[in-house]
Amino acid sequence: MEERVIIFDTTLRDGEQSPGASMNAAEKLRLATQLEKLGVDVLEAGFPAASEGDFDAVSKIAGKLKKTEVAALARTSKNDIDRAWGAIQHAAKPRIHTFLATSDIHMHYKLNMTRDQVLKTASESVKYAKSFTDNIEFSAEDASRSDRDFLCKVFETAIGAGATTINIPDTVGYAIPMEFADLVKYVIDHTPNINKAVVSVHCHNDLGLATANTLAAINNGARQAEVTINGIGERAGNTSLEEVVMSLHTRPNYLPFTSNIRTEQIFPTSRLVSMITGIMIQPNKAIVGANAFAHEAGIHQDGVLKNPMTYEIMKPDTIGLSASKLILGKHSGRHALRSHLKKMGYDLSDDELKLVFKKFKELADKKKHVVDEDLEVIITEGILRTADIFQLEYLHVTSGTTVIPMATVKLSINGRPVQGTGYGNGPIDAAYDCISKLAGTESELQRFSISAITSGTDAQGEVTVRLKENGLVALGRGADPDIITASVKAYINGLNRLEYLKANPIKATA
Ligand code: KIV
Ligand code: ZN
């Protein structure tokens, strides 16, 4: 019989450590709801000791999810574990995830601890966490560069103290598949009480091997995979959920394992993560990239038309790519909109629905068909970001071949209206000039990119920007049928994210 692999999603914790990817509590809650719909078994909601904002977001998620386990990360200190438990204690299925480095280099330079001290701390922290819940995960940070026998000793100690999952992270993305698979087998063979815990792996993608390492580990006995949507995460990212799940799905003869993931929710979830974080998906990204199912060469197209399996190893429908969407138009009523939003995972209050319906009608006047992606934009911008400091009230631009581009912008800053004028070498430059003066920002605009959300000339333009200020990086995203408005929304979103980051600094783990 096929065995099941537990899918532990850390998009909201390790994924949020991607440069610029900070999310507010409402955005995290929306993503968490979608991840539960996708069927992840465990959702790591955040690192509550890192900031009040993180605590609040984890606590809200813990209160909302009913089927999915909600994990909170903690270092081994009592304070971290107290904060983690404080944030998840009301969850239907809470899990405390504590971690401590075990490689010589980390113990010496980062922790300044001896091996004996690490063993003692691991034991004490797991026992302390165990006083709150039986569901404890212990991670040996930098496990792949740790002395193997010492690593097994640490795991034996953690399991002895009550850990129910032990996690083997390749924290710096250094391992290669044969080596990592061998490490997993070594841990299983040399940790006497290993049968009392689930063996988990957590890989980083610095050498582009995170998925390969994870699959090799599963093949050698790991039964939990720690992953993120679109593979987002610190540096080169984490193992991507969609790659692991679709590998299991597509190659059962070599990988006889199942997961609880509803594969048809993969694409909508991937799209939502990109929309909320502002991190664009590279076109050639496996499974969810725009080109993953696009056949350019004529000979391929011909084959695919005759039989899709000539060149397609997966069906687009399996990941929800071509799932038929209810298309709404300007004659669609409030009732149809509410029930469609419910299916998408939004349970809106009457006031929220009123606002979304108004924006939907405005959009439907400009665009013939309003699809799911358009509704996600309306909700992200109209509902999830309402606590923003900077809000756009009004924008007017003049530009053309014979005038100096000029923009007039009215913003509200913490509810206070301000207005100004700016000039530039184009309408976007002029609007940005005006906004930066009004906001008094010192941030530098490092990147600007523009694309279309859906196909068709009436599609909404989607703009992402990257802003940097005093070492903090924020991505901003905005969408609108008018690309100048989309650009302005993206800039303002970036400024809001910078403010959020200043108030809620992300503490890097890895
Ligand atoms: O990469 C890592 O080691 C981590 C741990 C906290 C699991 O993210
Ligand atoms: Zn990590």
The CATH architecture of the largest domain can be given as Alpha-Beta Barrel
Shape: globular
Mean of pLDDT: 92
Determine the structural class based on helices, strands and strand pairing.
alpha/beta
Question: How many independent structural domains?
Answer: 2
The largest sheet is: 8 strands, parallel, barrel
Number of strands: 16
Gyration radius, in Å: 24 Å
Beta-strand percentage? 15-25%
| Unreliable spans | none
CATH class category of the largest domain: Alpha Beta
- Whole-Å distance between the termini? 35 Å
Can you describe this structure in just a few lines?
This protein has helices spanning 25-38, 52-64, 78-88, 104-111, 115-130, 148-161, 177-190, 210-219, 241-250, 266-277, 298-306, 334-344, 350-366, 372-384, 427-439, 483-503, and strands at residues 3-4, 6-9, 42-46, 69-74, 94-101, 136-141, 165-170, 198-203, 224-227, 257-258, 390-398, 406-413, 416-423, 444-452, 461-469, 472-480. By secondary structure, it is of the alpha/beta class. Strand 4, helix 3 (78-88) and strand 5 form a beta-alpha-beta unit.
